[in-house]
What does this fold into?
Amino acid sequence: MGLVILWDRLQKKQTADFANDICDTVDALMEEREPENLTLYEDTAASKVQGKLLQYYEKMKDGYRQSAEDKQTIQALVSDISHQVKTPIANIQMFLSILQQHELAREKQEEFLHMMAGQIRKLDFLMESLIKMSRLETGTFSIHMEENRLYDTIAQAVSSIWTKAEQKNIELDVDCDSQVTVRHDAKWTAEALANLLDNAVKYTPEGGSVHVSVRPWQFYTRIDIADSGIGIAEEHYNHVFQRFFRAQEAAGQEGVGLGLYLARGIITRQNGYMSVKSKQGAGTVFSVYLLS
It folds into this structure.
């Protein structure tokens, strides 16, 4: 009978110790401090429960951390958008006020209307870019990877900047085997390449050249877009892919600094990557690598 009582007391003590250990662990985690009574390296019920509690705690911390980062991203986006749209809206309001408050000659009215139209186009382009950026950042756009001919994708991208290249008398040529196929999203990849080509044409002086070449490798297919433009300083190689970044030498050209940011985001989401090599005054080469 004495053994039964002793066993019962031992069981109660073990249960009490187990409960105290778990409660102490929970209290420590709630207070965001390191638990003092961890038994993770022992093969006991308490160690198993403590281990699960720590896993859950770390997962919750990751969730809170991600939530805080998302909040900061949204705040930064709102700030960037607000800053970017202020200038064209202010210009439109100014031009409209002048037209409403002053009697202007027909020729002068048309000049102000032309400038307003330009600001509206800029605002439209900006909003479209911001929508794409927002979809990219929040992951709300879908990538549909299929085996497609790369030549067709490049042709779609080239068609979007052909007129601009002609207006500046820029020589534009493509070296791509029409039989090369790569698993990629043709629509979004064409968008990324069009952004790169638009930059190449924009920053290449009249009479220059833009050359597109495709080279299949063992694991990647490489697409080079080379221009004879103003070039990029080496210290800006990483900066050019940041949203809204514009180097001082690019300030005279239209743009909002989203093209390269969007291009890299699109390529990265297809498990590819991009690189840049340039020399100021001697042109730039942007390279896109897509998994073969």
